[in-house]
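Tokens in:
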């Protein structure tokens, strides 16, 4: 049985830990760890990178840029969970469901950038609708979202340990780091507006995009998403106007926690036929980070794509 070796640079952070938890049961991947005191030591990290098949970067952006160079200097393939390389042309964007050719691009890439959590929701909602010209690519889309506090990494987790505000809106200056990847990979010709918030819960996320379109197109938006993601293991398009299969007309951010799934909702009201609310629900640490990273690792190593992508129950 083939066993690949990987090194997680940033193994003790929020994303790194959840990748390790997932990989603990992986039959084809062995994770090499670095001694705690050497975790920031360039030569120790370079030596590990030289001995593995893929290095996964779970570091802040600047540290990820430096680490990517270290890995490149020893010829090691890289999967970067940070936002440092997501729109860099020499890197492949690690969203397998982006377009039909994306899996092959990830499988053969030397350098793969794992997408941002909010961006994953926004891109999967918008891209097929723009491709099919149901929405105009020059629209200024207004995206709102709420995330669990683990999205802010160990610092934010620490802040919330003894309680925190129920709801905090942030990035009120139109300049969130996910906007470039949403624009590039959503194929938008205009910079979107993005307005995130963080809530007092650990994991889970909702991404909302209200859209205005030609009257009567809401069902077409839904069927386009349904056709586009038919057969996808991790992307579930809910029924048209179905908020919750249990019939409760409310959405919580928690429905996908622990999994690598993302759910897409298309919500409309026939009284207002020119508008539709698009919603994505995902686990910020699942399809938004660590689950997606394991999915990409599997693809990069030529393994079955869904091996250990969900957290064991
Ligand atoms: N949390 C989330 O939901 C998501 C996070 N991401 C991205 O993944 C990356 C990691 O995020 P997250 O896990 O949340 O962050 P954390 O803050 O939880 O973890 C960061 C890790 O990086 C290590 N680190 C920091 N600076 C350096 C350095 N200069 N050299 C070596 N190691 C360093 C820290 O170790 P120590 O401080 O102990 O030295 C820690 O283990 C970030 O780029 C983030 O943007 C992506 C998607 C979602
Ligand atoms: C709540 C919170 O702070 N979230 C983070 C995004 C987490 C994430 O997925 O982003 P990256 O992959 O780009 O790091 C933020 O808004 O910066």
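Residues out:
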């Amino acid at each position: 049985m083939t066993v690949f070796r990987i090194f997680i640079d940033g193994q003790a952070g929020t994303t790194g830990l959840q990748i390790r938890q997932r990989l603990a049961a992986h039959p084809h991947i062995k994770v090499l760890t670095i001694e705690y005191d050497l975790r920031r030591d360039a030569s120790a990290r370079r030596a590990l990178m030289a001995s593995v098949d893929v290095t996964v970067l779970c570091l802040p952006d600047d540290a990820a840029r430096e680490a990517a160079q270290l890995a490149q200097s020893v010829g090691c393939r890289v999967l970067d969970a940070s936002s440092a390389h997501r729109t860099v042309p020499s890197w492949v964007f690690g969203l397998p469901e982006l377009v039909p050719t994306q899996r092959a691009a990830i499988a053969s890439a030397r350098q793969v950038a794992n997408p941002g959590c909010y961006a994953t929701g926004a891109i999967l909602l918008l891209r097929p609708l723009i491709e099919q010209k149901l929405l105009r690519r020059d629209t200024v889309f207004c995206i709102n979202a709420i995330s669990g506090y683990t999205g802010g990494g160990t610092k934010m987790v620490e802040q919330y340990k003894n309680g925190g505000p129920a709801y905090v809106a942030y990035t009120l200056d139109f300049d969130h780091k996910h906007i470039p990847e949403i624009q590039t990979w959503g194929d938008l010709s205009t910079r979107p507006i993005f307005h995130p918030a963080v809530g007092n819960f650990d994991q889970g996320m909702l991404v909302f995009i209200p859209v205005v379109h030609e009257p009567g197109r809401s069902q077409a938006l839904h069927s386009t998403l349904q056709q586009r993601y038919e057969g996808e293991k991790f992307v579930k398009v809910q029924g048209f106007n179905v908020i919750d299969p249990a019939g409760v007309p409310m959405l919580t951010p928690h429905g996908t926690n622990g999994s690598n799934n993302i759910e897409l909702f298309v919500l409309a009201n026939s009284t207002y036929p020119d508008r539709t609310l698009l919603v994505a629900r995902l686990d910020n640490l699942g399809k938004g980070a660590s689950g997606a990273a394991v999915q990409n690792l599997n693809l990069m190593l030529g393994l079955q794509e869904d091996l250990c992508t969900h957290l064991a129950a």
